[in-house]
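Provenance and format

Records in this collection were gathered into a single text stream. Each protein contributes a sequence line and a token line. The two records reproduced below are adjacent in the stream.
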Amino acid sequence: MHGSALELTLVFLLAAVTAVPVFKRFGLGAVLAYLVTGVVLGPYGLGVVQDADRILNAAEIGVVMMLFVIGLELSPSRLRVMRKPVFGAGGLQVLLTGLALGGLALLADQHWKTALIIGLGLALSSTAVSLQLLSERKELTSEHGRLGFAILLFQDLVAIPLLAAIPLLGGAKDETLTWTDVFQAVGAVAVVIFGGRLLLRHLFRIVARTRMPEVFTASALLVVLGIAWFMQLAGLSAGLGAFLAGVLLSDSEFRHELESQIEPFKGLLLGLFFIAVGMDVDLDRVMAEPQLISAGVLILLTIKFLMLFLIGMGPGKLDMRGALMLGGVLWLGGEFAFVVFSEAVRANLMDDELRDRLVAIVSLSMALTPLLLIGMSQMLAGVAKRKPPSRAFDDFPDDQPQVLIAGMGRFGQIIGRMLTAQRVPFVALENSPETVDTLRRFGNARIYYGDPTRPDLLRAAGAQHVKAFVVAVDDPDINIKATRLIRRMFPQAKVFARARNRQHAWRLMDLSAEPIRETFASSLEMGEQVLVALGVPPDAAARQTERFREHDEKLLRAQYLVYDDDVAVIQTAKDAIGDLEKLLEADAGGVDARES
């Protein structure tokens, strides 16, 4: 296709919008839909797009953004807990799989250097495909999902020195890895970590004070892509830089806002990345050597599955079902293998023909994995899960919030302090960066900057796990908007909402929320103290105050039935005044009788 960029964009969007719902309808998942779309549109299919590599390079930004979002979910304390599965299970998987596949390459009369690159290149799995599959199936927090992520994280780390070692193995005189390169890489990581800690939060505080969402979005994209570009300049992985940036911001007040801003870009660009991978499947090569390519895919999947299963059952301490699922998610090849094998060609360690075969094998494994995983899940559907033995990696508390507070002004702060005193986990959203900054200085780490009327932000804050919502926003219109959104997203949720007055309370009742009038309780308390000061016995004052509370709540609900009719509202109030006077007089008479 030689049309404009707009035409190409329309083709991608139309294909994705058409394919994804169809595949999801049959339970096949979005990843497989994107891959098949790429095969159909690519140079070896209908030929709509000829330059697949160019699109693949651009779409890798989606992988960068995905790793940033994953970093936001991993605080430094969680990473410290994960070091054993990352370097233990991850290191073992790369070592064993690399040796097994490299050994087979040696038996196929490949040079030991070529065999080493083949083994280690094929040992890497696709971070993008595997994590997307786990996310679609809501298994990222499962036992095999967390172990799989640890293994993928190690693969991303080991891919950097592997790429740097290829020129050394090829003997290129001017492309050897020097101590300058090593210090440059270590220095770049240090700059990102220490510079990020000092600057990133201050940057987002300044941007948040502008109260312009588009500026915040631009700043988030600038940070993610800027750090990725900086790490690339240092010869490191752009994804590693984005991951580090996410980890640095994981315990900041802007975590959920950043996640909600990046998520739409990440989803679209990841879809484009999977389409580009599908385009890179060389159907001509597959059709020319079907037995050889099929055998290569079968060997790759079998060996990786076996190694992952053994690691899951051994060091991973998974049950059999978890170990089988771990193998089914990570047995595919990875997109980084394309880069590794291309570098090997440039270093004269393999020819173009061998590279094309390996790329076809990896691409087919990536395309087949979503479909094979569905079949495996159906086979294991009847296998019961057992609780694995406790270990440090699993014992790290998830601390899912039970309450979400929208608005942390004076009203919301008191509720937050009560929940903290009872050790009830909650998450709070506040649209004022000054308020967030002040409360954070007092040690309140559960408050985050963001607009509670945005659905993507509520999802990022974990609203789907919440048992009760508290809408404590001062502005009545924003208050109503937030309550309406919560009720639409979570129809069965329990919602308590701050009400400024009776009219506001009635509008909240229309949304099936429980209105709490902001000055009602304090006014009743003051009224009770005034009665006591005037000589009314404390117990009688308390009883009369409670009678008045019950009466007014009853009146509020009676007026709610006719609140769109001003005449009826006023008449209901007049009728209630006489009933209240009789009620209080009767109560006062009872007190006098008891005292006499």
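Adjacent record:
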Amino acid sequence: MTDEAKRTRDSRDRPRAAAGALAGAVAGFAALTTAELASVAVRPQAGPVVAVGGAVIDRTPAAVKEWAIRNFGTDDKLVLRIGILIALALCAAFLGMAAPRFPRAAAAGVVAFGAVGAAAALGRPAADSPLDALPSLVGGISGAAVVLLLAGRLATRAPADGAPEGAEVTAGTEVAAGTESSDSGPPEARTGWDRRGFVLATSAVAAVSAGAGALGRVLNTASGSGAVASRDRLALPAPASPAPPVPPGTALRVPGVTPFITPNASFYRVDTALVVPKVDVATWRLRLRGEGVRRPVTLSFDDLLRRDAVERDITLTCVSNEVGGPYAGNARWLGVPLRELLAECGVEPPSRGGPADQLVARSVDGMTIGTPVEDVMDGRDALLAFGMNGEPLPFAHGFPVRMVVPGLYGYVSACKWIKDIELTTFDSYDPYWAERGWARRAPIRTQSRIDTPKPFARPAAGTVMVAGVAWAQHRGIDRVEVRVDDGPWRTARLASEDSRDTWRQWSVPWQATRGSHTLTVRATDRTGRVQTDRRTRPRPDGAAGRHSVVVTVD
């Protein structure tokens, strides 16, 4: 074949390669949408993107997870989904480019991706049926069928008898290799493949796939309608032990400071669930069992509501929170005391001879959270909560029931969507985060944060109010101090304390002078412990250090 013939062939192959990439992308789209539709027969969490995403989260190194939370915040799951979709699109495009010459191999590649999704779905902690593999397998098979269909439209027809080697013949027109086709001929004669048929087939597949995906999304949303309706109908009981009235002066009137009570819509959310579980209270059950449980019990939601409820203001903090970070929030929780329920089941804390030192809570999505039994039963207001700020728990925050334990980071206390409590020991079982190198016990560190002025703000010279929040749950905040540059520490004005389980606002007026300044804050808790100046990262048991901001005074 002459160089000119090669150049002619290459110029003809380029459009077909681009079309192949498009065919692969459409096949991948078809696979995902049919999998979405098939997940209706199982559960939304069995879909391939969610299953693979969950597997990625489980196997991602802790340092990478910290980086993702630090840079993407609560959008980290959206970024993961987008990343998975981009990776799938690129792989599908590559397989599509190979499909015209190797259609069976390309189809097998798509099926292999479906098998990977099926394996990921079956490997999820919440997988309780082989049917969890169904959506990915259906998607892989449908994607493979689309690859074969569109590859047939991209294939070059064999040359007619007597035509020179390398010739292309389509639509009854012979085109010899190394010669130029007539510009006036049909597109098929110039490109060597069925362009018109490819466009029609691709458009049809894309339209059908979009319809399947939309139908699957609607049906999956409808599958959670019972849970939504059960939450809408729920009337929270009046607490037998209401929260004490919030003292006057708890909320400072300083613009820019974090509100004392965090609205539900603004409350931070950090978990591993790519799809928020929607559980109907009519079917929800909580099982309590394990070592030292003399009277195991299974409770319905109505059983919980019949118990005396208590209402408490409690500040929660995520262990992923960097110094000065946003992952802390204060809410009014309504629930039943976990300590009383454990005592009724015959559980004794280790200090009184109980055999179990760890309470393992399991979520409906397979998450396991390990909490020290001693902390749950030492008299603090550890709750099985079903209300938050005067309404049933939002789905994103654990509806119908979650755990709340003052003074402990969420990863060792705040199990959302809880369904099972097992009493065991730290030596015999490592829950999810302990398996990944996080500390088994994690009391919340004494921390403070500057909310205003913001970093790199440019306030005017004169009186500038510096303000923020400080927390040391279950110990309480005793003092907050602020320093400007390397000057002396100045004691801030503390807002009134609601309880030792809530954060406290603070403020201090600063006579700001022109130039660049560094503002630093530190807190002292009721045990006399001063917030350290030694910076550490969140892993393994919470970030430490002092928050500071740099401002330029004009």
